[in-house]
Predict the structure.
Amino acid sequence: MGDKRKIKEIYNCVAIVSNEELYPLQKWYNQLIEKTIDEITIADVLKMIRQKEFTNLAMSKAIYFLQENVFAGELYEGELLEKLSEMDSLFLTSYADDLKKIIKNALLKSKIHDWTYDGEEKEFKDIIDALSQKVVEAVGLAARKFEQTIKEQDSDAYRKLREQK
């Protein structure tokens, strides 16, 4: 990623201050915005997704971590994949190509992975299935949005697109 600026500088945000004791999430947020993009951890990415904070940055980092290790997670293997499968399909649309590659890699690696307990492989494959379904939905949404845009802008192009189907 390489950008040496802190998140607060990139996104022009400020720390949370209070006369009272800060809540744990507020403390985490203050620590997060003091980090550079390279300093963001898997735990940060998971929390960013859960809290819907800096979601595009979280996705970029999630993809980076999953390209390095498809089993990435803070508490258990596959946790990051699982968290992505819970995200909105429309949001995942712009990341569909990267996610398809990650899913393919996860399926390959799951066949040779040394699982720690019975049923763990099935749990992991269920996570992959859920994410795959989200990506399929995302691709479908993107196609429908593209089709609608063409329909609104140029009826001849839309007619040609419909004839191709």
